[in-house]
Amino acid sequence: MRTILKSILLMSLCSSATATAMAINRANHGKEETGIHEEETNIHEEDANIHKEEASDSTKHQPLTESSIKLNEVVVTGLTGSQKLKQSPAPISFVSARQLEMQPSTNIIDAIAHQPGVSQITTGSGISKPVIRGLGYNRVVVVNDGIRQEGQQWGDEHGIEIDPASVHSVEILKGPASLKYGSDAMAGVLIFHSAPTLAKGDMRANFSTGYQTNNGLFDYSLNFAGNQGGFVWNTRYSGKMAHAYKNKYDGYVFGSSLREQAFSQLLGWNYRMGHSHLTLDYYHLTPGIVEGERDEKTGELEVPDGYDVKSYGKPMPYQQIHHYKAVLDNSWFLGDGNLKLLLGYQQNRRQEFEEEENPKECGLDFMLHTVNYDLHYLSPEMNGWKFSTGINGMWQQSINKGSEFLIPAYHLFDYGVFATVSKEIGKLNLSGGIRYDHRHLHSEALREEEPSENNGGLAGSDSDHDAFRFQAFKRSFEGVTGSIGLAYEILPDFNIKLNVARGFRAPNISELASNGVHEGSQRYELGNTSLKPENSWQFDLGLDYSSPIISASLSLFANRINHYIYSEKLADENNQPVLIDDTPAYQFTSGDARILGGEASIDIHPVERLHFGNTFSYVNSVQLHQPAESKYLPFTPAPRWVSDVRYEFVCDGKTFDHLFVKLQMDCNLRQNHYFAANETETATPSYTLLNIYAGTDVKLHGKHLLSLYLSGENLTNRAYQNHLSRLKYLDVNQVTGRRGIYNMGRNFSIKVVVPIEL
Q1: What pLDDT digit, counting tens, does each position of 659-703 carry?
Q2: Disulfide: which of 20, 51, 170, 179 matches 199 by Cβ 3.0-4.6 Å?
């Protein structure tokens, strides 16, 4: 499989950075879900003309600021096919190709973490996990190439195996979205869309590259796509490397370097009655592991002898992640209805290398195989009614191939059946549905010889030298979810939205059966086989207002979760941390929780080119019926206020076009609401970052030559710790008294995007 997938360059996105979100959605022509069926519209003459119009304009950029009026017309994924954003009762954010292109980042989650209600759990500068409204890990479903992205989502130090250059646009569904995606979509769904296929007869290429000064990050991506007589292809190769990042307190942070490589290839056929596409992906990430060990006398981070902190090589310890994916996407028009069949295979392998003496021998070594399936039917519209129904799920097998163990080998199979309906009545849009999920998990036993003293006592033993690290067990989980909501246009520029949804999440294998050292998070983790599934009820209220001068939105939510699962630091009778294998021990447990919060934004634009923007995000997460030290949920992001001033200069369009400058203030308030039991978490002080962004299209003889983007982040070189940083809890600096490692300091970046017409 590795040889096959590496040999074919994968899934591509033609000129992803330069096509606009509005163009994509206009090309979709309302046929089916955004980002899935764009190719089908190429078959019809009218839509082909649209694509040709877009192709001719693909080297041009829309204005920097997409007003709320414009965004409300964007077509997004709905319960019963695509719908305009303003018609969706559920809260959804849309990130366009233009926004992704402008934002400097180290990974795809970092690129969208500035969106209201979205945060990231970070382990250094290269690894990010999405958090939506205070919920992360397996509570966020990631969809790419039309199927669920499946890796080691439960790990702190394991990110999303997606090439940022291959992503054309992003939909962020906030709140329970289990109707279409099944278990785990408690917090929401991230849908990463590829660029649409080209019109018949078109071929295009694209090259981009960038550099960041703080960690020496250098990246590049080359894309080639075309459509000849209905035969479509899209090929992309991307690479990235970065040495250790630095800040003014820690200097260079040993172990924070990374290397990334990605290949993708799409091959397919567009025909009058639908399309058949095969997408192949290969993703390889090699990040270092930050341990944070310090010299007791100087307080400086320890660096092995002979190691250059500005080296792009592999530091010891480090991880290695390989992710292979193959997706067969079929879509057929049946009259005015649509039948969709997706089949996918994923192989995710994660390895940790720790021993200098044996650099090729890995400790933890997980091999995860996943087969995804999805069959659903979208009915034709009948008197304003639209229906959809389907079945989807996955089969998984996880194998331990290393010398160390954290979770047992297991098999998993699940399925879900669903039915949804929507109705448009004048200015009122109603939608809802129901779903049933069933998941079965079978964990395998593992007997160890000569276990450690501590571990043997915990895992249970038959003798002093013969013990079970993992006991075999079987668990089945099932749940019923549903939602109902409405969107009503009170005035032409004023909308109200209401939505009630029930979420469901089965405990993952880490929560149920962990028993080992989690090197990346510096924890000894213990599972709990008695955990029950999480169930939630969430209520959403949304208000949107748009005018030529002011655009504003307010989104409020209330979420009640039963059997919320979290990890708690263990302490002995003297309130001292319990150590297993010289590592602090953490135990998974559960309780009931209540989460309140919301997002607010206002954009004042007294003139077309000048914008004053403000967004505010707030989450209050409380555990019910718990003592004061356990009152708040872990991983609750701090309140965040982002304010910016943006201006687009009027240029002659001959040399420079769409020139803009943006000044931004990113203020993270103090987080006093933290899970304090046994010092699992600590309070985080407030901090404010000052950033500047600029960009322009450069032309030569009236032809678009390239797009240039410049940025400066953390201009004041503020030393800070984000509340969701896992490096915040590493060793104390005995000289300064500061605990943990700080985030990245001042960083300047440059990015160049060059369209190539063929």
Answers
A1: 999 999 999 999 999 999 888 899 999 999 999 999 999 998 888
A2: 51
pLDDT of residue 492: 86
Output 27 or 397, whichever has higher pLDDT.
397
DSSP helix, strand, coil percent of the chain (3-state; round to 5) = 10, 55, 35
- What's the pTM value of the predicted model, to 2 decimals? 0.87
How many angstroms separate the CA atoms of 185 and 379, rounded? 25
168 has a pLDDT exceeding 90: yes
Residue 520 belongs to a domain with what CATH number? Answer: 2.40.170.20
- Cross-strand partners of 80: none
Looking at this protein, which amino acid is placed at residue 672?
Answer: N
How many domains is the chain built from? 1
Nearest to 534 by CA among 235, 148, 155, 138: 138
Task: Quickly tell me which residue has 């246009």 as its tokens.
Answer: 489
Q: Are 315 and 303 in contact (CB under 8 A)?
A: no
Q: How far apart are CA 84 and CA 284, in angstroms?
A: 36
Among residues 108, 186, 167, the alpha carbon closest in space to that of 501 is found at 186
Considering only CA atoms, give the Rg of the chain: 25
- 317: preceding bond cis by omega (within 30 degrees): yes
Has residue 458 got a pLDDT over 70? no
Q: Which residues pair with 579 in a beta bridge?
A: 584
* pLDDT(574) > 50: yes
151, 145 in Cβ contact below 8 A? no
Q: Contact 514/526 with Cβ under 8 angstroms?
A: yes
Which of 390, 488, 476 lies closest to 435, judged by CA? 390
Q: 53 or 340: whose pLDDT is higher? A: 340
Note whether 175 and 557 are within 8 A (CB).
yes
User: What pLDDT was estimated at residue 462?
Assistant: 42
Helix 21-28 / helix 45-56 crossing angle, nearest 10 deg: 170
Least confident among 281-290, 304-313, 338-347, 457-466: 457-466
Report residue 67 as tokens.
Answer: 């007003």
pLDDT tens per residue, range 111-131:
999 999 999 999 887 889 999
Which pair of structure tokens corresponds to residue 573? 């009778």
- Which pLDDT score is estimated for 118? 95
Cα distance between residue 600 and residue 639, in whole Å: 12
DSSP 593-626: EEEEEEEEEEEEEEETTEEEEEEEEEEEEEETT-
Please answer whether residues 435 and 389 qualify as being in contact, where contact means their C-beta atoms are separated by less than 8 angstroms: no
